[in-house]
Amino acid sequence: MHLSIAVRPSAARSRLVAGALLALTLVAGTMPAHAQTDTRFRWLDGYASPGTPAEYDRVGVLEIGPRSARNILILAPGTSASAAYFAPLARHIVSRVKGWQVWAVERRENQLEDHSVLDRAKRGDASPDEVFDYYLGWLADQTITNHFELIPDSSVTYARAWGMKVTVEDLRRVVKDARRRASHVVLGGHSLGGSITAAYATWDFDGEVGAVDLDGLVFIDGGSGPTPVSADDAQASLDDVNAGSPWLSFGGIAAPFAGLFNASGSLGALLDPDSPSRGQAFPLLPADLKPPIPVTNLGQYGYALDTATSPSSLRAAQAHLGHLAASGDPRGWDQAGEITPIGRFATMFSGFGLPGLDGTAWYHPRRLTIDAGAVAAGNPNPAQEILDVHAIHGSDLPRDLQIYAFGAALGGQRVLDAASALADQSGIPRSNVLLIARPETYAHNDPNSAYPRNEFVDGLVRVLDKVSGGRPGRLPTLD
């Protein structure tokens, strides 16, 4: 990658150059040398959602792996996550299992994000301080006049309809495109992406079951159990979103600020890891995310998202990253033998090396989360009728479908139980089902970020090999 460094004062310029080189080293350490040439992004025409401007009726695909690979794993991100979140995992997968590409889905809502200064920083044309000021600093400093513009809810009321139907219909375009290109297609998702996976597999597409185009399903600490929300709760939630903001608050942080904190914080942690944290000094950063002692940008990022120090409201954003260094002023970060390297984690969320993309969804549709409660492992129920959800074929999945579920700290055994129920409904033999529970050792994001040792990936390689014919045989249930 070419880095064009703007002229700055000597010390600041030195930090930016050093940070950029560190970021390149961190990213290079998590991907094969050929990864840049095997990474592609494109937009597909999506579902025509009533009331949505035509330019937003699109769904994106981040493709990683050789174009010649004849098998495709499609991954759907979870709540407030997006395609770039899967990039390091995808590179790990294609390095482990031959003949596969990984396609990560970029949902339509991410077209509303402003990546202008993030992209400049990724090219080396803007400093982390410029990134911070453009996206966050201006909120507390009125002298900053060049800054990110908030989107009024009143201008995007059409996003109130961006629920499971819109997401599944967009995903249908991705799956059909993959099916035209591939011998085998597997669909998976993390967290809420697991619910989307179950919805797609059991969806009624004019009498056709979604799973007929699939060879396998992968549930990464997420899924859909057979019990739906009540009709009354579904109606109340629908009324609430139709009268309020289209967007979900993540961990108590309103949209788009959770995304802005993560995108700017992760990029600053990569590009300028050793400078005093801008976030710690920022008055609008929630107090429970701030360490009690002065820290670096990297230390601040780790403290906010490590399992030991991150607040419980952010469990869905956590991983086992390490702890603050034992000494230093300001304090840096010590991985301390934990399973997820913090540089890899920051790469996932910053989308480093991927212009126009980061790993968060700044604007996550509330309707999508509401609708997930009606999927109910593909069993028809009154809430589906209220929410226009059509996941009704939970007992009609192909019997040769492969199913893999990995339960981490947030979903745990419930994820395995949901996958088992889905298989049992359609008579899928247990020899086609792989269940792994690691709730004590894997936080919610560790299955996607642990490296180089990753038990989720170990199981996934077995499943993908079986799907493509590399290792036929039984997939055992593991404790």
Present the secondary structure layout:
Blueprint: H1 10-28, E1 39-45, E2 58-64, E3 71-76, H2 87-96, E4 100-106, H3 116-123, H4 128-135, H5 164-181, E5 184-190, H6 192-202, E6 204-205, E7 208-209, E8 216-220, H7 231-243, H8 257-271, H9 278-281, H10 297-305, E9 323-324, E10 333-334, H11 342-350, H12 366-372, H13 382-387, E11 402-407, H14 413-425, E12 433-437, H15 446-449, H16 455-467
Parallel strand pairs: 3-4, 3-5, 5-8, 8-11, 11-12
Antiparallel strand pairs: 1-2, 2-4, 6-7, 9-10
Class of secondary structure makeup:
alpha/beta
Uncertain stretches: 1-18, 27-35, 471-479
Order of helices and strands: HEEEHEHHHEHEEEHHHHEEHHHEHEHH
CATH level-four homologous superfamily name of the largest domain: Alpha/Beta hydrolase fold, catalytic domain
Helix content: 25-40%
CATH class of the largest domain: Alpha Beta
Overall 3D geometry? globular
Number of helices, counting only DSSP H or I runs of 4 residues or more: 16
- What CATH calls the topology of the largest domain is Rossmann fold
Residue fraction in strands:
5-15%
Q: Which strand order do you get reading across the main beta sheet?
A: 1-2-4-3-5-8-11-12
Largest sheet: 8 strands, mixed
Mean pLDDT, all residues: 92
Please, how many domains? 2
Tell how many strands the DSSP assignment holds.
12
Provide the gyration radius in Å: 22 Å
| Cα-to-Cα separation, first versus last residue | 43 Å
- What is the CATH architecture assignment of the largest domain? 3-Layer(aba) Sandwich
